[in-house]
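lol forgot to send this yesterday, sorry. struct tokens for the thing we talked abt
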């Protein structure tokens, strides 16, 4: 197995391209304009309901600063939003390293960009299964796939990408980005990565624990079973 080891990293990385896809949209109305105030040239890439909200938040500035992920990737979203961000160009932008010439050539070849920050939080699985009327299908529909993938990819590349999974961190992140003239620091990115990995670990453990409690003979009764392939 070939692994990509890195021996060189930047400390300060300017926030220029931000990937935004959130279930919990609280605080975006303050966080997004503040990022744009710090760096008027920042670009936001978003999906679905988050894109619609950012269009309202940014107003006239949305025309030049906000982009649909589907326009960037060239692929429309799958019906039901099942596939929106699982695309080579997205992960090339999240995982590419600053001083890797091969990665730079891949970006040039595909017309890709490097993402400097991801703002991602996950479908409300825990809240869904906590409802009295929750079913296995409610739970299944609220298992996030793209979100954990983006969080993990961004956290793995903390050398360059700031991963933001908790709206409670918005204020502190803005404070440090202002102090660093529009940049995140390596230490800040490392701390955010550590939190993101804990977040996805807790999320997966909640799903696993829930499914472990489901009796298949009872839980699967809600589906109309087809015997044909």
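and heres what i got for the seq, position by position
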């Amino acid at each position: 197995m070939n692994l990509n080891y890195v021996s060189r990293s930047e400390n300060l990385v300017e926030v220029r391209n931000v990937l935004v896809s959130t279930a919990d949209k609280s605080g975006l109305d303050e966080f997004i304009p503040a990022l744009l105030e710090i760096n008027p040239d920042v670009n936001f890439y978003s999906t679905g309901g988050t894109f619609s909200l950012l269009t309202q938040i940014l107003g006239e500035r949305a025309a030049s600063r906000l982009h649909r992920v589907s326009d960037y990737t060239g692929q429309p979203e799958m019906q039901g939003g099942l596939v929106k961000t699982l695309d080579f160009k997205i992960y090339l932008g999240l995982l590419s390293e600053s001083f890797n010439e091969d990665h730079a050539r891949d970006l040039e070849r595909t017309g890709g960009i490097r993402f400097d920050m991801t703002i991602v939080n996950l479908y409300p699985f825990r809240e869904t299964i906590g409802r009295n009327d929750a079913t296995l299908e409610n739970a299944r529909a609220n298992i996030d796939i793209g979100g954990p993938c983006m969080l993990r990819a961004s956290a793995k590349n903390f050398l360059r990408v700031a991963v933001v999974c908790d709206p409670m961190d918005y204020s502190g992140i803005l404070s440090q980005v202002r102090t660093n003239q529009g940049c995140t620091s390596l230490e800040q990115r490392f701390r955010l990565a550590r939190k993101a990995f804990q977040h996805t670990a807790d999320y997966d453990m909640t799903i696993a624990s829930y499914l472990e409690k489901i009796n298949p003979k009872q839980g699967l009764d809600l589906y109309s079973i087809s015997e044909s392939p």
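The mean pLDDT is 92. anyway ping me if u want another try
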